[in-house]
Design brief:
The protein has about 425 residues and is of the alpha/beta class. The protein has helices spanning about 1-10, 15-70, 70-90, 405-410, and strands at about 100-105, 105-115, 130-145, 145-150, 160, 165-170, 175, 185, 190-195, 195-200, 205, 210, 240-245, 250, 255-265, 270, 275-280, 285, 290-295, 295-300, 305-310, 315-320, 330, 340-345, 350-365, 370, 375-385, 390-395, 415-420.
């Protein structure tokens, strides 16, 4: 028996296995720490996003509701409710109530969140969970940037979307979504979008679109600039199912066009100044048709009364400078059923004035160029989607035009913005 023990203690065969086992434990623990750390960083990034948006939501409530009520305590209560509401909606599992700090000069809302980072793979080294903390501060400021594209639909997801491969350029103006949904504005294509500001009342999904400036979420919605403009009384039909396949110039006068207006050739339709009411039918243009008019408003009501531009069609028109529909080039009856409008193909849209389609889902696209070289164009629809490889250029040189702009468009806006 002593010989057996001597041989056992003298043997070298198991040393490497013992040594490997001793080294393996810290290796596994170290790998566990690294894995947990990556997980904590991921949770921290997500929590920071919630904190940023919650601070913006709180700041918006603090500024707007608080200023209306002239009550500091009430303003803080409303802001706190907005922060907590955002946390609840996004199911942020905090280990303590958000810490919210207010200042008045300047007006800021600061939120501090903390969340537990549970250990999973690194429990060999320590059983204590990590504490993840983030902070965000939003400040109230005034901006004078005017919106030239507005998606009015508050429940659409999204109300403004960029899904094409071409550039969209809003020159010196803003693109706004009034949707309050989690995805109120979305960039899902491969093109680019340029504007002085991109703003959404709800959330933003940047996607793969290249934005010139980062879109902002939790913005105050833009009030409908033409909410008080009423649909005029529709008289008897001046024309029914009007169509033109003439390749020359055709002139028509204001009136009621039952069944809409349809252009099917490369000719030009000239509109005399005034109001053209299209009932239960669209403005439809194909085959390279051109529509021209100065001091014109096209009013659409009833079913199937949208815009359908295709082929190489062109519109070159301006809104009236005075009268009930001053500044309005296209107007859709908001009491009509929801419509779909499309401006597609290698068309050119040159409209000086406001295009107002509050109950339309507007799809704007093309294959070559679709520009708006008028001094200004304001595009307002229920939803707006920029599609295809089209280049869209919308100008906002309001001072250079004799056509009036809706007052709400030009008003300065109180805006929350992140400062930390």
């Amino acid at each position: 028996m002593p010989v057996v023990f001597e041989r056992f203690w003298a043997s070298q065969q198991g040393n490497s296995g013992v040594m490997f086992s001793l080294v393996l434990v810290p290796l596994i623990a170290g790998a566990g720490v690294a894995i947990d750390y990556v997980g904590w960083r991921h949770h921290e990034t997500r929590l920071q996003g919630v904190a940023d948006s919650a601070a913006l939501a709180g700041a918006m409530a603090y500024a707007f509701e608080g200023n209306k009520k002239k009550d500091q305590l009430q303003a803080e209560t409303l802001a706190t409710a907005a922060v907590n509401g955002y946390v609840d909606v996004h199911h942020a599992q905090l280990n303590a109530a958000p810490q919210i700090t207010f200042t008045q000069a300047p007006q800021t809302v600061k939120v501090d969140f903390s969340q537990t980072g549970t250990r999973t793979f690194s429990t060999l080294l320590s059983g204590t969970d990590a504490n993840i903390t983030v902070s965000a501060t939003a400040m109230i400021s005034t901006v004078t940037t005017s919106p030239c594209v507005i998606g009015l639909n508050e429940t659409a997801s999204p109300a403004v979307v960029f899904s094409g491969s071409g550039p969209m350029i809003a020159q010196d103006c803003a693109v706004w979504s009034n949707s309050t949904q989690s995805v109120a504005m979305e960039g899902q294509g491969t093109g680019s979008a340029t504007a002085s500001m991109f703003c959404a009342a709800g959330g933003v999904l940047n996607g793969s679109i290249s934005f010139s400036v980062s879109p902002q979420s939790s913005c105050p919605p833009v009030e409908d600039p033409l909410a008080d403009l009423e649909m005029p009384t529709v008289g008897i039909c001046s024309e029914t199912n009007f169509q033109s396949a003439d390749s020359g110039i055709v002139a028509i006068n204001p009136g009621v066009y039952c069944g809409g207006i349809k252009l099917m050739s490369s000719g030009t339709l000239q509109l005399s100044p005034g109001e053209y009411i299209l009932t239960d039918g669209p403005l439809e243009m194909h085959g390279g048709a051109t529509l021209e008019g100065t001091g014109v408003t096209i009013i659409m009501t009833g079913t199937n009364s949208g815009l359908k531009l295709g082929g190489a069609s062109k519109i070159n028109m301006s809104a009236p400078a005075s009268g009930t529909f001053a500044g309005v080039a296209f107007y859709s009856d908001r009491n009509s059923p929801v419509q779909s409008s499309s401006l597609r193909g290698s068309n050119s849209l040159d409209v000086e004035g406001t295009i107002y389609l509050p109950n339309h889902n507007l799809s704007y696209g093309g294959s070559n160029s679709a520009t708006s070289p008028a001094k200004f164009t304001v595009l307002i629809a229920g939803t707006v989607e920029f599609v295809g490889s089209v280049e869209v250029s919308i100008r906002s040189d309001f001072d250079a035009s004799a056509i009036p702009v809706p007052t709400e468009i030009l008003q300065a806006r109180i805006m929350p913005r992140l400062v930390k």
